[in-house]
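Worked example 3 (structure in, sequence out).
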């Protein structure tokens, strides 16, 4: 079980039988990003330690691209 927690409870939760590896963790984060907002709004910060699955080459660009596209979308609306 892998939960993402906020001050208000669970943001995203995934359960699988096997250990989380790079691809499965990235898929989990992809699902979490749908519940994230731009800083300084609620649910706008992701904190990870330095375990190896947090260092996959795809992970950080995926997070950055989500927020860049979210910021672009908000600019278009205003």
């Amino acid at each position: 079980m892998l939960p993402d927690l906020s001050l208000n409870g669970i943001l995203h939760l995934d359960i699988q039988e096997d250990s989380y590896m790079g691809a499965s963790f990235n898929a989990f984060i992809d699902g979490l990003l749908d519940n994230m907002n731009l800083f300084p709004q609620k649910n706008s910060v992701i904190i990870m330690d330095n375990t190896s699955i947090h260092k996959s080459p795809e992970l950080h660009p995926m997070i950055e691209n989500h927020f860049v596209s979210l910021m672009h979308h908000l600019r278009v609306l205003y």
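Notes: The helical segments are 22-33, 59-77. The chain has two helices and two strands.
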